[in-house]
Amino acid sequence: MVSGVRLKMEVVTPLYMRGQDSSENPLDAFRVPSLRGLARFWFRALMGGVIGNTSQNLDCIERLEGQVFGSTEQASLVQFRLEGIPRSRRGVIDRKSSGMSDMNYLAFSLWDRPAVPPGESIVLVINVRPGVQGDISQNGLGIVLGSLWLLTHLGGLGARSRRGFGSIAVVNPVSYPPELEKLPPFICEDSEPERYASFLSSGIGRLANLYQEYARRMLRQKDWGESWSQSARLPKYDILARRVARVRVSSDHFQSWEQALSSLGGRLKRARTGLSPTKRQIFGLPLPRVSSQRRSSPLLFKIVRFRSGEYGAVLTLFKAQFSQGSGTTDANYGDLDEFLNGIQGHEVQLP
Predict the structure, then answer these.
(1) 3-class DSSP assignment, residue 50
(2) Bigger pLDDT: 273 or 230?
(3) Contact between residue 39 and residue 69 where contact means Cβ atoms under 8 Å apart
(4) Which H/E stretch holds residue 207?
(5) Per DSSP, what are the bridge partners of residue 11?
(6) How far apart are CA 200 and CA 129, in angstroms?
(7) What is the DSSP string of 297-332?
(8) Element (H, E) at 169
(9) Global pTM value
């Protein structure tokens, strides 16, 4: 029986601490609660696509999340431990630097704040909690690793992670024991964007099958009803599934992470400039003179470092309902779809 797995995670783009206090240590982003919270987000995103869209199924997702990551009623199946927390932190972005205005457009409030610089790394050790035995231990560990796979390939840590900062990657080969052989590899050996998109398609598909198998086993249920790809409605939260999400890999090769972020920043600035203030709300709030409401952008930028040493960009769009007052409303994602379609690249196939 497998007992644990070690993941060496490397910072690809500057990692900043969340919050407005510039004195906060960006190293605090490397905390077990932060990593566990992000793993929960990606668990919900993929499990939500697997199970479907009824209110009963939402309760099932909550039960499964509690079983794996813990709740007020039960402990988590796994324990996280961090080793070798990086000590380096310094200013990385200079608002006055020439040629970096497009990247600074993405950075926004991060100017002159200290960050964990690219190249720093940390080891995350995931162990099955003592006393957890049998199928539930290996299956639960597999689900957690799947959530971390999604985090390291589509997401990031810390402030402005949806704008490409705090991108991280697993850099050590992870050897899975036979019990976890259905998990996709963390490292893509190919440096071509088209093949990287295929790598993501395969990995997400394998994880969806693993999640579905886990849900059926834990809940003893085989049919989840209408899927999100069949529904005319939008989900209430971010779901990684066809029709309600898109993932696209840019076909561009970049020589540095700065170049990759500058390219995305320039595209985003031009796209938003061409829209009325009301239409710009789809890119996230608050928006000066339009709305003081806070709403995360549904569009995520991720910078990846290929094996060749070059860099690439992955863009993920979640199409969920928008909170409005005390309720929710469907949103028009046409402008964001148009933005993605304007980026030459390769679409990732979602389950």
Answers:
(1) helix
(2) 273
(3) yes
(4) helix 193-219
(5) 168
(6) 30
(7) -SEEEEEEE-TTS-EEEEEEEE--PEEETTEEE---
(8) strand 168-170
(9) 0.92
